[in-house]
Amino acid sequence: MCGIVGYVGDKQAYPIIIKGLKRLEYRGYDSAGVSIGNKDGILVLKEKGKVADLEAYAADRDSTGSIGIGHTRWATHGVPNQVNAHPHLSGDGKLSLIHNGIIENYDSIKQTLISKGHTFKSDTDTEVLVHLIEYFKEKEQVNLFEAVRLALNHVVGAYAIIVMEQGINNEFIAARKGSPLLIGIGKGEYFVASDASPIVEYTREVVYLGDGEIARINKDEELDIKTIANMSKTPFIEELELSLEAIEKGGFSSFMLKEIFEQPKSVIDTLRGRINPETKEITLGGISDYEQKIMNADRIIIVACGTSWHAGLIGEYLFEDLARISVEVEYASEFRYRNPIINENDVVLAISQSGETADSLAALELAKEKGATLLGICNVVGSSIPRLTHAGSYTHAGPEIGVASTKAFTTQIIVLTLMAIKMAHKKGTITMKKYHEIITELELIPEKIEKILKKNDQIEKIAAEFKDATNFLYLGRGYNFPVALEGALKLKEISYIHAEGYPAAEMKHGPIALIDDEMPIVIIATKKGNYDKVLSNIQEVKARGGRLIAIVTEGDKTVKELADYCIEVPDCLDELSPLLTNIPLQLLSYHIALMRGCNVDMPRNLAKSVTVE
Ligand code: G6P
Questions:
Q1: Which of these three, 422, 453, 484, is where a domain ends?
Q2: For residue 305, which atom of ligand 1 is closest to its CA?
Q3: How far apart are CA 134 and CA 553, in angstroms?
Q4: 22-37 average pLDDT score
Q5: What is the pLDDT of residue 530?
Q6: Is-contact 535 524, C-beta < 8 A?
Q7: What pLDDT, in 10s, does the model give residues 334-372?
Q8: What mean pLDDT is predicted for residues 260-273?
Q9: Residue 12 exposure: Cα atoms within 13 Å on the Cβ side
Q10: pLDDT surpassing 90 at residue 546
Q11: Cis peptide leading into 520, omega within 30 of 0?
């Protein structure tokens, strides 16, 4: 949700900021803007649309200056237009601010400021914040650092901000609460960004600003950090592990396609070092101190959003089926507001690619208050969820930039599988034979995914047949029911075709009424699931004229006779089949979206990292 970048040093700020904004565009892309400081003051350039639109707009402007801030927006307050785009200026035009997050009490602050003579140009909560800072600066006659601190003491909500001041071209102020922000330390220069991708090509030394911290960032000085409560903090410098190649397209036409094709490698990276090659024992270092707690938990409550929630559902099947631990899977946004019963014997597990999703974070905060043990499965190292939880495991899938989640989902299932069989093994709820069977199968998953990716051309042809459909139904049972949900979500997200995922057997209680000879139905009918039952569901669809695309096990003959199109996946244990069946559905959505002229990496209205409620 919104990406922010800042640079202060001796180089030209504008190109660094534009490049950084392009890397952060996955966080929002309805408008963009920059403020550049130079001897003439602050130049503000803003435009509706993507960063490329801003670049075109700014092309013939003199953007010289070695301090600057930039923003790419996902609108919350105020429609996406030039006026509402960030940066926003104070009333006197001397302060310029960019913001990621939401100021919840902006309206009451705005009314107070209006009563004191302030006038506002935009509909945003952000403009209110910069006016509030200006108000304190004048009223208390303090410097910007102190004015930001005083203002933030009156703010309720989430923010990552950078504020710069006219005439001060060697320093700006950054602060965060609830939204991510890190500071890259160069030689005589600093970089600030929502994630590491705009920073990594310049420096590997970073400081993750803590919640409720404010930094004075002066190019000629050490970082000066204090809390909103005015306590000094010593910066904790960390080394970035991210590589530059990982955040570039590497010859693919889109990040989504790259990330789909990366999955064999992502799975290997997720498994790396976690299965002992001789004993086959699983080590998940991040949760080792909490294994007893998980084993003896009354329940595991999984909280997540979007695709990560679908991975959570697969986790439920895995933990209950294999480790006999009771699991509830909750939409984080619902969980936090329904007064849930949580106690000290519960383990609350948040699954999140970004590690920043506001609803998931808030659900964890609630669980923390109630004394539960908090675990996380996240992809972004150092993000907020891993910082909040007691323990957890990273997916190590590498940066996922396409807004529609692909490799993060697959690797979340891998980590859930490792956790579940580790617990099952410790509890003795599966036999050694079964344990070894699952491990052997897990190690074969990368090559099996590779085999499915070779069917890309076949899947593209099927996509061409269905690209003009207006509705899709996705059906699956057991372990593959969440895959049906995820398949439908993927299609909706990137192609804007309405799609529903359903448990195949539930179809007869409603969605069957939708089936006619126009309706494509994607059904997962692999051999080891409830195959016979799914066959009956296929018959029910056929009897009503639906057009069937079936995901089947290699060599299947029965479904082939019934379905219009079959996509084969290699044979696999039922428990691990989502790792395979999910792949053709990603490719199907990808090709359909592309054929419909949609931007697969930046689908309309969506953002990758949802840091607002
Ligand atoms: C957004 C993204 C989805 C993602 C969801 C949860 O809606 O567009 O792809 O699944 O957020 O994000 P998280 O980072 O918590 O997994």
A1: 453
A2: 6
A3: 65
A4: 93
A5: 85
A6: no
A7: 998 888 999 999 999 999 999 999 999 999 999 999 999
A8: 96
A9: 7
A10: no
A11: no
The residue to which tokens 């057997």 are assigned? 505
Structural domain contains residue 480: yes
Candidates 48, 137, 219, 608; catalytic one: 608
Mean pLDDT of 12-21: 98
Residue 256 has pLDDT above 80, yes or no: yes
380 CA closest ligand 1 atom index = 14
Q: Are 184 and 199 in contact (CB under 8 A)?
A: yes
306 and 438 belong to one structural domain: yes
Question: Could you report the per-residue pLDDT of 494-511, keeping only the tens digit for each?
Answer: 999 999 999 988 888 888
Question: 494, 466, 492: which is closest to 567 by C-alpha?
Answer: 466
Single residue among 401, 425, 453 that ends a domain in this structure:
453
- 145 in the same domain as 61: yes
Mean pLDDT (the chain) is 94
- Atom 2, ligand 1: residue with shortest CA distance: 608
214 and 253 together in one domain: no
Same-domain status, 233 and 260: no
Q: What is the CA(613)–ligand 1 centre distance, in A?
A: 12
Cβ atoms of 161 and 213 within 8 Å: the answer is no
Amino acid at 84: N
CB neighbour list of residue 112: distance below 8 Å, 6 or more residues apart: none
Query: Ligand 1 centroid to 167 CA: how many Å?
Result: 40
Question: Could you tell me which of 441, 487, 411 has the C-alpha nearest to residue 322?
Answer: 441
Indicate whether 37 belongs to any domain: yes
| Catalytic residue check, 608 | yes
Strands of 157-165's sheet in order across: 88-89, 95-103, 157-165, 171-177, 213-218, 224-227, 232-233
C-alpha span between 612 and 100 (Å, rounded): 9
The total of structural domains in the chain comes to 3
Residue 187 domain boundaries: 3-246
**CA separation, residue 136 to residues 108, 124, 129 (Å):** 16, 19, 11
Q: Verify that 311 and 367 share a domain, yes or no.
A: yes
Per-residue confidence at 463, pLDDT binned at 50, 70, 90? very high
Two tokens, residue 52: 């490329």
For the residues of 516-567, what is the DSSP string, one character each? STT-EEEEEE-TTSSHHHHHHHHHHHHHTTPEEEEEEETT--HHHHH-SEEE
Which residues have CB under 6 Å of ligand 1? 305-308, 352-354, 357, 360, 403-405, 606, 608-610
Catalytic residue among 2, 305, 572, 598: 2
Task: Please tell me whether residue 137 adopts helix, strand or coil conformation.
Answer: helix
Establish if 184 belongs to a structural domain.
yes
Query: Is residue 605, in this structure, part of any structural domain at all?
Result: no
Helix (H, G, I), strand (E, B) or coil at 266: helix
pTM for the model stands at: 0.85
Output the CA 307–ligand 1 centroid distance in Å. Answer: 6
Residue 493 CA: nearest ligand 1 atom is 8
- In angstroms, the CA 460 to CA 595 distance is 9
Residue 609 has pLDDT above 80, yes or no: no
